[in-house]
Design a protein that fits this description.
By secondary structure, this protein is an alpha+beta fold. The protein has 5 helices and 8 strands. It has one domain.
């Protein structure tokens, strides 16, 4: 589950929405990576993906009671959504190393633009992967992308315009 947090800067009085955590948006990616861990097959090959995902979803009544054409259509959509998520270097890692575990999550960030008015919150899809050879991969962004910092008590967040922890917690809600 993700947590959608609203906060307002006590200096510029701008209200922001920050997204943290993991939600249904990551479902195709999680299916893909779970399948890679269990099968150790190249799931960037559609035939492999279809076979592995069909097996994974074989216990899901919603999936199994659909007509075959609908199941195939659903698998194609999952494949497209999963494969566009990965960057080229991530695809190469997944093809060349044995994946042991992974995590996907949202983290709010902003572009460090000289114009404070252009600094807006963007929710970034992050990925961490651990491989059998001990390699740990964490998705990285350019140095111009700054991630929102949060105080230990989760009551103050970075205001992108002020670039300080001036945004005070207002509310939050869970997102499935």
């Amino acid at each position: 589950m993700s947590n959608l947090v609203k906060a307002k800067c006590e200096v510029c009085e701008t209200e922001y929405t920050y997204l943290f955590g993991n939600d249904a948006t990551f479902f195709p990616v999680r299916i893909f990576l779970d399948g890679m861990i269990k099968s150790q097959k190249d799931l960037f090959n559609f035939d492999n993906f279809k076979q592995v995902v069909s097996e994974q979803l074989s216990q899901d009544p919603t999936f199994m009671f659909q007509e075959e054409s609908k199941r195939n259509e659903g698998i194609e959509k999952l494949y497209k959504a999963a494969t566009i998520f990965f960057w080229e270097n991530e695809k190469e890692l997944l093809k060349s190393k044995i994946l042991l575990s992974f995590d996907t999550f949202w983290a709010p960030a902003f572009l460090n633009d000289p114009d404070p008015e252009k600094r807006t919150i963007h929710n970034m899809m992050l990925l961490e992967m651990k491989f059998l050879d001990g390699t740990v991969y964490k998705r990285r962004f350019t140095k111009d992308i700054l991630f929102v910092q949060v105080t230990d008590n989760s009551k103050k967040f970075t205001c992108p315009k002020e670039m300080e922890q001036n945004a005070i917690y207002i509310s939050d809600e869970f997102v499935a």
